[in-house]
Amino acid sequence: MHCEIGSLGYPPAALFAFGIGLVAYNILSVVRTALAAAHGESCLDDISAYYVADEMRGMMRGMMVAIGTDRWQRQFSQLTARQMANLLVALARRVKLDRFRKHRRGPKKPRPKRTRFKGKPHVSTARILAESRGKDSYLQ
Fold first, then answer.
1. Who is most buried in 64, 85, 106, 137, counting CB within 10 A?
2. How far is CA 45 from CA 28, 72, 131, in A?
3. What is the pLDDT of residue 31?
4. How far apart are CA 103 and CA 55, in angstroms?
5. Are 88 and 30 in contact (CB under 8 A)?
6. Sign (positive/negative) of CA torsion 7, 13, 14, 17?
7. Contact 9, 17 (CB under 8 A)
8. Where are the domains of the chain?
9. Helix, strand, coil content of the chain in percent (nearest 5)
10. Average pLDDT per run of 10 along the chain, which is 140 residues long?
């Protein structure tokens, strides 16, 4: 595993950062699983993890301001695992997947074939500029 951050020189800091990464990945995995249960497994191919994580980050800030921590704990601490899963799938059904689609790059255009200097692998820019100015030698 090569995931240690070089600037975190202290082992507890590196371990903390690694733990945060694991928790974040688990949260993303739960969200993706709920989306797959609600919209079908094939929808995950087109969903961008970046856009999902960005939406979660932005929404979380606003929700923590609007709804206090005690309300969150009262709301969700009483739910069983099955009830929580059913709630997540019900919420995932309301997600508009178009907002989180990957923007796939189109095919690259083929490189244009050389029309000048076909036999030479390297062409001096100074020589090309000199020829365009009508000079005999590019060293003048």
1. 85
2. 15, 32, 53
3. 92
4. 16
5. yes
6. negative
7. no
8. 11-100
9. 60, 0, 35
10. 61 83 91 93 90 88 83 85 93 92 89 80 82 67
12-35 in b/e form (b: 16+ CB < 10 A) is: eebeeeeeeeeeeeeeeeebbbbb
Q: Which two tokens stand for residue 36?
A: 């797959």
Cβ neighbours of residue 130 under 8 Å, at least 6 residues apart?
A: 137, 138, 140
Q: What are phi and psi of 47, to 5 degrees?
A: -90, 130
Task: Kindly state the tokens that stand for 47.
Answer: 């969903």
140, containing H or E segment: none
Block residue for tokens 């692998």: 121
At 36 the pLDDT is 94
Measured CA angle at 64 (ends 26, 97), to 5 deg: 55
